[in-house]
Design a protein that fits this description.
five-stranded antiparallel sheet, Jelly Rolls, binds heme C, 13% helix, five-stranded mixed sheet, mainly beta
Length: 526
């Protein structure tokens, strides 16, 4: 470090601390706190949603200021379990250290309201499907009554699809009927008749099963939902399959409630608009692959770590990851080691919480080269000091579907790799999307500069709209009409622009919908 820099540093530190010391007086609800709350908390803390009280006004927030300071300080709220310093995912909802500090300073300095005129408007939350008109609506066949006994309940509903043929599926959207009690949902599909048998054996609509479906269905991790999660269409050419005559297995976690309530939820299915070239496959890592930690048994009173290992046989593109354990689960770390020795961080959960599990979807596909060793490591806490331990005193626990048994599962959704996958955007939407969703977005062209091999054009729409896409030259003359008022669904789309017949030069790609327009420069080198 140079002498002058060394001299400067203490001065900078001093400057930083003065700035910080001045800040608390200036922090106001209107200008600093409301934007944080409305973006990160109100989506769940509003009428009819999963959280037990609303956070929609100065009064709401001031009345619970101390608890809010506490739960944000320990990062219990917002409930986002994946460590954002390890890997970012879609729908990530976390506060920065600076935002947490702002909440603390604001609370400690007397909950200044500030000028209410400066408060941002409450966000509006879309009602109905986010993706437009579903192709298939699969409702619960009757309302289910969740007793007001302050108990959690994991209930499975077997929903017929009555499809005469197999269909390719681009998106599965769960719509909670009663968000007040609906904590999360896991959706499987089944072509055996096992679920109907379990349903018939159990009184009432559906059957109760913790942790899994009570048997191994055709696909146990077909789709899922947690509060705050947005359904998205798979990029063109990618999708899942819904088998002819398959039953949808909807497992809903109903949270504790003091009042008996009813729920009728719905699963919306969006068929693929274009033929699926690559089906999304699910790879589960299970205790069969454990290499460190021995047999999957967690002795009473112990903290135990298991590590499983799987060697990826061919190049793959990772789409999402879903770790699963029950109540003794404490942490997860999942990563890959490429043949070159480089590490691919996949997910890290420092504080596993059965109540807040879900599928973590990557914003872009991540390439896992052939022969990458994937490691999944989970730690279980079977000591009496673990407040979530279902046994007191602790008992030795092993694999099983019951609340009191444990699981070690990590599901990966992937497709076989194709060159260019790294640039396939599942969504370029940021965590702000709920509040400032642009009507349309044109993604960066790829590659750019481009040659004779063509260019990939990507765009996304907030709602279905007619799209016009034109290529103009540097003088603004139309060189090619790529799309003319063609209606596209909401979500991301991709097109290929062939450049073979175009001379080298500067171009512009213009995307237009009735309420927006965006252009990007394209350089062709030949
Ligand atoms: C994904 C939905 C969701 C989001 C986002 C969310 N909460 Fe919550 N919150 C809940 C639920 C559900 C509960 C009740 C169950 C629990 O405590 O886990 C809760 C409980 C709380 C509690 C009471 C905790 C207690 O133990 O008494 C506070 C305070 C709170 N939230 C504040 C916040 C704040 C502040 C934010 C934003 C920074 C936020 N929440 C974001 C769902 C959410």
């Amino acid at each position: 470090m140079s002498a002058s820099l060394r001299f400067l540093l203490p001065a900078l530190a001093l400057l930083a601390s003065t700035v910080h010391a001045q800040q608390p007086q200036q922090l106001t609800y209107s200008e600093h706190i409301a934007p944080i709350i409305y973006q990160h908390c109100t989506p769940c803390h509003r009428p009819g949603e999963v959280a037990p009280f609303t956070l929609q006004s100065y009064q709401d927030v001031a009345a619970r200021a101390q608890t809010i300071k506490f739960v944000t300080g320990i990062r219990y709220m917002p409930p986002w379990k994946a460590d954002p310093s390890y890997r970012h995912f879609l729908d990530e909802n976390t506060l920065t250290s600076q935002q947490i500090q702002q909440i603390q300073d604001w609370v400690d300095n007397g909950l200044q309201r500030g000028n209410p005129a400066l408060e941002p408007p409450l966000p509006t939350f879309p009602a109905g499907s986010r993706l437009g008109q579903p192709d298939l609506v699969v409702p619960m066949q009757e309302a289910f009554t969740h007793q007001g006994n302050l108990q959690d309940l994991y209930r499975i509903f077997v929903l017929p699809t009555n499809l005469p043929t197999d269909r390719d599926v681009a998106a599965v959207e769960f719509r909670a009927g009663n968000r007040r009690i609906t904590h999360h949902a896991i959706i499987g599909i089944d072509t055996t008749r096992r679920a109907q048998v379990l349903d018939a054996q159990s009184p009432g609509y559906g059957y109760t099963q913790f942790g899994g479906f009570g048997f191994n269905p055709t696909e146990s991790n077909w789709a899922g939902w947690v509060p705050g999660m947005t359904a998205r269409l798979a990029p063109n050419g990618l999708g899942k399959k819904l088998y002819r005559g398959a039953k949808i297995l909807l497992q809903v976690h109903y949270g504790p409630t003091a009042l008996t309530q009813k729920d009728s939820s719905v699963v919306n299915i969006f068929f693929s608009r274009q033929p699926v070239q690559r089906y999304i496959q699910t790879l589960p890592m299970t205790p069969l692959q454990i290499t460190v930690g021995g047999t999957f048994v967690i002795p009473a009173g112990q903290l135990k770590t298991f590590r499983a290992e799987y060697r990826m046989p061919a190049d793959a593109s990772l789409i999402s990851v879903l770790p699963h354990a029950h109540l003794l689960g404490k942490s997860w770390k999942v990563w890959g080691v490429k043949p070159t020795g480089d590490t691919i961080p996949i997910i890290k959960i420092n504080d596993w919480d059965f109540n807040w599990q879900g599928s973590y979807r990557l914003p872009n596909l991540v390439k896992i080269p052939a022969n990458t060793r994937i490691f999944a490591e989970a730690t279980y806490d079977n000591r009496a000091s673990n407040p979530r331990n279902p046994f007191n005193p602790p008992q030795t626990v092993s694999w099983g579907e019951e609340t009191t048994a444990e699981m070690f599962l990590c599901y990966f959704d992937f497709v076989p790799y194709r060159p260019g996958d790294e640039n396939l955007v599942l969504s370029a939407q940021t965590e702000n999307e709920l509040f400032q969703r642009p009507a349309m977005r044109l993604y960066p062209l790829y590659p750019n500069p481009a040659g004779a091999e063509g260019v990939t054009l990507g765009f996304s729409l907030a709602r279905p709209a007619p799209v016009t896409l034109t290529l103009t030259d540097a003088q603004g003359r139309v060189v090619r009409r790529i799309l003319q008022d063609e209606t596209y669904s909401a979500g991301p789309h991709q097109l290929r622009l062939s450049t073979a017949s175009l001379p080298a030069g500067l171009y512009q790609v213009r995307l237009q919908t009735p309420d927006a327009e965006e252009t990007q420069k394209l350089t062709l080198l030949k």
